[in-house]
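Explain this one:

_____
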Amino acid sequence: MKIAMLAPIAWRTPPRHYGPWELVSSLITEALVDLGVDVTLFATADSITKGTLEAVCKEGYEENPNVHAKVWECLHISNCFEQADKFDLIHNQFDFLPLTYSGFVSTPMVTTIHGFSSPSILPVFEKYNNRCHYVSISDSDRAPSLTYASTIYHGIDISQFTFQEKADQSYLLFYGRFHPDKGAKEAIEIARAARMPLKMAGIVQDKEYFAKYVEPEIQKGTVEYLGSVGPEKRDELLGKALALLHPINFNEPFGLSVVESMACGTPVIACNRGSMPELIDHGKTGFLVTNAGEAAEYVADLKKIDRSACRKTVEERFSVQRMAADYLALYKRILE
């Protein structure tokens, strides 16, 4: 079986620090290679893979402002489809644009829908609904107008996350992009109400939001901003935290940081929206709340959470091996 894995090119695959779609593309690719599948990864030229790397764009446009995003996206996608007859199947991790190429090739295509940035993009998915095989990353993130081949939850490389039987007990953690959707402002409110120090890490996606709601609150020992951290620091921050605060303001399709936190044994306090009830078992691996005030009240109950239950949940439901096996089964079903 020969698979073309079409990754985005905003960041390197795998990303150095941020790039969730690139991360998932990498995890699936490497796990499939380990299963003996012949995978060609279409990604940036600086990407790293055990499979075959195919690239026309030197580096991600989010990492180099001189890379024109639309120009290189077009060249990148066309490079994959111009070689479509070499592959048994194309796995599209790139969102809706590659769908518009699918009618020109006979190679079947699986598209992992990583969420809908806006309802305005739905017409593209609807047009190719009967041609492409759509995968949702949670049951909550399904559009009623589309037909899905499967729901396959993201998986992570558990070996990259160290289980911490006991928390540091000295801080709460916000780990994610700084944007109104992710609730950094609310995380600060929760920590303040719970009278707990808060550490914050992630890329600043909305500079005005960060300047208005986060920057004025930064004070050593109370609210600390650590920037966008790499894998080693991420592992330490997640593992030592009393809890991950995830007070999202949108219906999040999945939530990699939630699973990564639980892999370290760290429970999650999250707003009960989107995929959160599919990831978090209320009272067992964290708490699902409706607002910041309720979240702050649950901080006192974190001691009731068995951290080993958090780790076990990830091992059983959210491992990269399980994800790869699910995708391989889907590929076989389509090709048969």
About this structure: DSSP finds eleven helices and 13 strands in the chain. The first strand starts at residue 2 and ends at 6. The chain has two domains: 2-155+319-335, 158-317.
